[in-house]
Amino acid sequence: MGGGLLFALSCNLDTLLLAGAYGLRGISLSLQGRLILAAVTTAVTALSLFFGAMTEGLFQGGNGRILGGAVLMGMGLWVILDYLRHPASGAPEPAGGDSLRAMVALGAALAVNNAGAGVCAGAVGVSVFWGSCANFAVTLFCLPFGGFLARHGWARWLEPYALPLSGGLLVLLGALELWG
After folding, report:
1. What is the pLDDT of residues 93-124, one digit of tens each?
2. Contact indicator for 125, 49 with CB cutoff of 8 Å
3. What whole-number distance in Å separates Cα of residue 167 and Cα of residue 180?
């Protein structure tokens, strides 16, 4: 389950930034809006973990874990290098409103990050169930926590470091799978 939590933390830093951006603008998401965002991102995460787990059996003798771990590390390094070349926030801009349509669209935008990492995480053995549960819980935690950070002036401090931190967590998860 530890890999699922690390995976979920990495995939939800953009959610934390989005919630901080909402908070800085004085926007508060309803419980329904938060649940929709968590459900959409978790559905995409579960599917990607499932597809990744399906590929694990295609490789012999642990080679799938090695390949998946290496790809996770590569994705993390890519995120870090891309940030170093273009330091800017990768968080989606807050949508106007808390409607079902806006929350589903925003959830889909947030889930794009989870899809690629989810396939690799599934290939290295992150449980579909625990990874999905962790994603749902971490998403629900990040939404109000981002607002809290905004109200207390921390959101602007965290924003420049979210992408390299997310990349670093992916590198760590990949390394744990390769050498753990």
Report:
1. 555 567 888 888 888 888 887 888 888 888 88
2. no
3. 19
Q: Smallest Cα–Cα separation from 169: which of 22, 47, 10, 25?
A: 10
Q: Which two tokens stand for residue 84?
A: 């170093």
* Count of C-beta atoms within a 10 Å radius of residue 110: 23
Name, in order, each residue with C-beta under 8 angstroms of 50's C-beta and a sequence gap of 6 or more.
122, 128
Q: Show the tokens assigned to 90.
A: 């990768």
Tokens of 44: 């995409």
What is the structure's pLDDT at 61? 63
Contact (CB, 8 A) for 91 and 32: no
**CA–CA separation, 37 and 33 (whole Å):** 6
The answer to whether the CB of 76 falls within 8 A of the CB of 174 is yes
Residue 20: CB atoms within 10 A of its CB come to: 28
Q: Which residue numbers in the chain have pLDDT < 70? A: 1-2, 57, 59-64, 88-97, 155-156, 158-159, 180
Q: How far apart are CA 128 and CA 52, in angstroms?
A: 9
Q: What's the full length of the chain, in residues?
A: 180
What's the N-to-C CA distance of the chain in angstroms?
Answer: 14
